[in-house]
């Protein structure tokens, strides 16, 4: 089984506000695209709707929702933890949010790709607490700050110990 979480968060674990990112960081978007291209992405309904309820090119979209009648054009819809875990048995499953999906799948994930933004933002959605003792940082790369990427940030990769 192979499951990776990918997300960006501020220093207070904020990951969203009003179903959108509270920052603009094009280099993080490029990192996200590079890491998810050609893979299956699992997301909750709100995350799916946050980017226009349409699939991102070059990736398979899997939308998880409790609504049994929900349809998502261009994506596969699932409703249970068991269905999500089945997808992780068939190659790497990239979990892209939101917080309820991360919380539910946290016991099963084996790799974390975190963009840590060294700022504080207003937000209403947070990444769940994780037990740091269960994880080992195997790579940390400082992001490039410039006029289009105005914050200090770094790309961190963790594996479960």
TrEMBL record:
Pfam family, one: DHFR_1
EC number: 1.5.1.3
PROSITE patterns named in the record: DHFR_1, DHFR_2
Biological processes annotated in GO: dihydrofolate metabolic process; folic acid metabolic process; one-carbon metabolic process; tetrahydrofolate biosynthetic process
This protein's pathway: Cofactor biosynthesis; tetrahydrofolate biosynthesis; 5,6,7,8-tetrahydrofolate from 7,8-dihydrofolate: step 1/1
Keywords assigned: NADP, One-carbon metabolism, Oxidoreductase
Domain named DHFR: residues: 2-160
MF terms in GO: dihydrofolate reductase activity; NADP+ binding
GO terms under cellular component: cytosol
Record keyword Nucleus present: no
Keyword Transport assigned: no
Catalytic activity line of the entry: (6S)-5,6,7,8-tetrahydrofolate + NADP(+) = 7,8-dihydrofolate + NADPH + H(+)
InterPro entries to which the protein is assigned, alphabetical: DHFR, DHFR-like_dom_sf, DHFR_CS, DHFR_dom
SUPFAM superfamilies registered for this protein in UniProt: Dihydrofolate reductase-like
Function (record text): Key enzyme in folate metabolism. Catalyzes an essential reaction for de novo glycine and purine synthesis, and for DNA precursor synthesis.
Family statement: Belongs to the dihydrofolate reductase family.
Protein name: Dihydrofolate reductase
Organism expressing this protein natively: Paenibacillus azoreducens
